[in-house]
């Protein structure tokens, strides 16, 4: 047993690796050194092994093994007796346990495919579920179960290639795996593990160190170092297999014959101890299970699997509040352009047949898309780079009445107007209104008590201008009626026609409200500031106006959530939620949302209490052009206990 202290990772490599805050600092004095005690007289013949988690799966079950011969996959009790087996030639192993059974991931050697197996409490194995063949050699795999109990497998490939696949909903395997996303991983990686509680994927890079990534399907692909090889970190020579326990990480350096222990420290890891594994022959894999006395271990080297105990109990992090995850029920066809293209939706309610209502979505690289309630694109108007869009009914255009959509056109710094046929929902361009803006950005509409429709648009410099729109001549015109300014960049806004008020978002600061009457003072009142439940950027704003209460919905882009507030002072926060993956429908969740819209209108079916539409900034499953996701308001109301 060795206790080793290291220099902090504040050398030049950490700067180059962007934000290295990993923990190789000296362990605090109050922490006692852990002792490793071997519990098996001789190694057990196996190539991979894991201790079964303490999740109430199967009394007496102790460990899973992958045998190097035709005995295949076996589950053993504490005395080594075989309780159940599945024949085949496999390589690598990971599992998740629950009261219903085990979900197991391994690699079929013969087929060179990842395979998922279920094992229930009656010792019945499911039919194998094979992940489609990859175009890279799979070096390692690991499982992840998210907050919504969806099951995923990560595949680690040669030359830095990786993939994430959805394989289960709850404990039930899907009929067919769904590819979630491709991953860019280190080029010398063979091992991975995921901490389900923190949603963190840890991957080795053999001659460099250990890296952590966010594991959630909607998370960005960002990496941070856990520890680096000397002289920049505390690893002597190499990084191989690892195991995660609450508050702790164990990782092997096979070349140095050492086991590294790390303690969770906020979002980072701090080195606790390094234990010399004398007598081991290049240990590559470790499995750990928490017990009242410390940790039970399985250590796998060239000779087989060794049992051990470690009198170390890392401090588990405090549980963090769970934000409800609501599955997307519908997704639209993608916008035509790749990259950051989709931005802001609006909902047009068909006054005679609500089931034939439309969702309008901007494509800020080319135009306006029109979708039905199933998400099918019905129209695409390639009129330019449109950013935000809003709709109001009853606009006088020449001698007829149409419903009106207005979008901010970034090509022309103009208000781009569209007529919506009240019967068919057909959308057509009717002209533009010039503005003096240099960089027009956000926009929303307002209908005053006299029935006039106003457009409120903003510039990236914080300037807002309000225009009274008129189409009685047959061509649209706009009269500026007032102007005000925020201190920094705004975008989203929404008007409360009932109460003649405007809500505006200042991206890095706050949501504000002011009187919308054109002759009123432009005095800003703070609704909510950044901090606490609201994470910048503040993006889309929408207003749900129900029979009993009105709610303001905000895109809290910084933590991929949506915040709901009372729309009347004192603007009490009613809660937050996220839009997550729908495994049954094969729809990914939503993240990095720019614009959103909501209606309280009864659109029938799922939408009988209204509908929320959000822009999805990271399209997954499959990866591709951005789109919009639909969520029943009834699900939001139930999750947050709203009227």
UniProtKB/TrEMBL annotation:
Pfam families, A to Z:
Phytase
- Name the InterPro entries for this protein: 6-blade_b-propeller_TolB-like, B-propeller_Phytase
Query: Molecular function terms in GO for this entry?
Result: inositol hexakisphosphate 3-phosphatase activity
Domain (BPP) ranges? 25-310, 316-640
Protein name in UniProt: 3-phytase
This chain's source organism reads: Stutzerimonas stutzeri (Pseudomonas stutzeri)
């Amino acid at each position: 047993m060795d206790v080793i202290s290291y220099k902090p990772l504040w050398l030049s490599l950490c700067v180059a690796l962007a934000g290295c805050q990993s923990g190789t600092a000296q362990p605090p004095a109050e922490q006692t050194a852990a002792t490793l005690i071997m519990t098996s007289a001789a190694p057990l013949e196996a190539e991979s092994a894991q201790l079964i988690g303490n999740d109430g799966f199967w009394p007496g079950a102790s460990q899973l093994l992958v045998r190097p011969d035709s005995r295949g996959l076996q589950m053993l009790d504490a005395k080594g007796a075989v309780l159940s087996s599945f024949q085949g030639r496999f390589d690598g192993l990971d599992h998740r346990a629950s009261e219903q059974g085990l979900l197991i991931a391994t690699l079929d050697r013969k087929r060179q495919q990842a395979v998922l197996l279920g094992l229930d409490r009656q010792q019945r194995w499911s039919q194998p579920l094979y992940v489609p063949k990859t175009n890279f050699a799979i070096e390692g795999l690991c499982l992840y179960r998210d907050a919504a109990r969806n099951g995923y497998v990560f595949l680690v490939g040669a030359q830095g290639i990786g993939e994430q696949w959805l394989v289960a909903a709850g404990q039930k395997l899907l009929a067919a795996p769904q590819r979630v996303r491709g991953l860019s991983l280190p080029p010398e990686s063979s091992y991975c593990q995921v901490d389900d509680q923190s949603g963190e994927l840890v991957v080795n890079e053999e001659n460099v160190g250990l890296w952590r990534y966010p594991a959630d399907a909607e998370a960005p692909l960002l990496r941070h170092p856990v520890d680096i090889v000397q002289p920049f970190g505390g690893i002597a020579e190499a990084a191989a297999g690892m195991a995660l326990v609450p508050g702790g990480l164990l990782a092997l350096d096979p070349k140095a014959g050492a086991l590294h222990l790390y303690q969770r420290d906020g979002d980072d890891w701090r080195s606790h101890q390094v234990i010399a594994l004398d007598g081991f022959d290049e240990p590559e894999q470790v499995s750990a299970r928490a017990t009242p006395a410390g940790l039970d271990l399985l250590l796998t080297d060239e000779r087989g699997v060794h049992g051990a105990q470690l009198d170390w109990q890392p401090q588990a992090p405090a549980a963090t509040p769970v934000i409800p995850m609501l599955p997307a029920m519908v997704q639209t066809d993608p916008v035509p352009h790749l990259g950051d293209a989709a931005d802001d939706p609006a909902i047009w309610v068909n006054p005679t047949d609500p089931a034939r209502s439309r969702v309008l979505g901007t494509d800020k690289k080319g135009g306006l898309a029109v979708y039905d309630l199933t998400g099918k694109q019905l129209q695409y108007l390639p009129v330019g780079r449109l950013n935000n869009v809003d709709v109001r009914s009853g606009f006088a255009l020449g001698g007829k009445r149409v419903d009106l959509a207005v979008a901010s056109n970034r090509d022309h710094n103009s208000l781009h107007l569209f007529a919506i046929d009240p019967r068919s929902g057909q959308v057509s361009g009717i002209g533009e209104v010039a503005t003096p803006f240099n960089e027009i950005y956000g926009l929303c509409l307002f209908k005053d008590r006299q029935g006039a429709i106003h457009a409120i648009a903003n510039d990236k410099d914080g300037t807002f201008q309000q225009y009274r729109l008129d189409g009685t001549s047959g061509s649209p015109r706009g009269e500026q009626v007032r102007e005000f300014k925020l201190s920094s960049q705004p975008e989203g806004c929404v008007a409360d026609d009932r109460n003649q008020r405007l809500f505006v978002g200042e991206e890095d600061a706050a949501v504000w409200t002011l009187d919308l009457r054109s002759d009123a003072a432009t005095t800003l009142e703070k609704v909510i500031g950044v901090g606490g439940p609201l994470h910048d950027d503040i993006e889309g704003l929408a207003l749900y106006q129900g029979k009993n209460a009105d709610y303001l919905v905000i895109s809290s882009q910084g933590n991929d959530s949506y915040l709901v507030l009372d729309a009347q002072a004192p603007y009490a926060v009613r809660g937050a939620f996220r839009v997550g993956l729908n495994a049954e429908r094969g729809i990914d969740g939503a993240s990095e949302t720019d614009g959103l819209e909501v209606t309280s209108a009864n659109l029938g079916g799922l939408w009988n209490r209204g509908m929320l539409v959000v822009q999805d900034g990271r399209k997954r499953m499959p990866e591709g052009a951005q789109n919009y996701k639909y969520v029943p308001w009834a699900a939001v109301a139930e999750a947050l206990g709203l009227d």
